[in-house]
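Listing S7. Sequence submitted for prediction.
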Amino acid sequence: MAISRWLATFTVFFFASTAASAAVGAGASAAASEEPKAQQRIVALSPHIVENLYAIGAGEHLVASVDHADYPEQAKALPRVGGYYGVQIEKILALKPTLVVVWQGGNKAADVETLERLGVPLYISNIQGVEDIATELRQLGKLTGNVAQSERVAAQFEQGYERLQHDYQRSEEQRPKVFYQLWSAPMMTVNNNTLIGKAITLCGGENVFADNSTDYPQVSVENVALAKPDIIVLSSEKSAVEQTRQWQRWGMIPAVKNKAIRAIDADLLHRYSTRILDGISKLCLAINS
């Protein structure tokens, strides 16, 4: 559930971080791409960035990461330089990185501005949809000299995504109503601007909070009851039994009445990495089983 906490917390910084990250010039990234591959020292400031760098064969160049960057297994051994609460600038500088990959919306604006001001080469990870993951894999490949492998991984990712889109085509009239419980206390969900909301649509579901004005709104059980979801999807397999028990008092909700409460591995769906296809596939199975 830790990564869900990351996802829920980073929204606090999103709008401020966007302005700071957008200010980072392309020149820093271009300069980094000219660095000989063997000399690269990369700091990745999000778990999904770590995963994507390993996926394209550039994991050997990582010298530090952040809290919850635990995949693949070798990522657990990397030194930590912070988390959603901020990063330790001094630690990053001491590592003498040739490239720092920051997460737009996920890293604090002040930290990004400081790194930029100090002349640290930055690349902005700015994934808004599943399609952007393949684009970022290719860009990271150019920056690290792993072009061929990044192209193979990106192409495989695109093919897998296309298969999912094809497999779960459904008319609007057939869509079950879905409530995605992103977080339990406070209860949070997603609208359809988010990658998770878009995944619900891809899987043939209708997100009951699709049109909410906030990307990650806080809602009440009463709000959920009024929305009458056919399916409730929990973002934690570890606490699924307890959370399912808590829903039982709301038997008027169709999902509760019909025992249609399912749980998935949050790390698979909440990280913008190649593994998100596994997460979407599990979400689709939860919605369509």
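Caption to Listing S7: primary sequence and predicted structure tokens for the chain studied. The radius of gyration is 20 Å. The chain has two domains: 2-163, 171-288.
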